[in-house]
Amino acid sequence: MTEEESPYILASRQNPQTAISNNTLLFALYRLGYRGRMTGHGFRAVASTVLNESKLWGRDAIERQLAHRETDQVREAYHRAEYLDERRRMMAWWSGYLEDSRSRTQA
Length: 107
Description:
Layout: H1 22-31, H2 40-54, H3 59-65, H4 73-78, H5 84-106
Helix pairs in contact: 3-5
């Protein structure tokens, strides 16, 4: 990985090896006119709701995709599955869902 590359989609300008802060995303939403209407966690809540309601994906895969931690300490200690195949299919489905939603709002 070169100095300019980052493992993060939303990398910090100051240090590309770290992600942007929650406030960076929040203030960007404010500048876009979403103050009081949406937050970074709001996007996560929308994704969680849609993915769970679709009944296409396992709860564990959804939670792992949202980077949620286990609340059960024993399960957290031993459960290390990443569900990468399911998560890849889930994100491809999510992309299509967003495109379909966008098409419906522009019609």
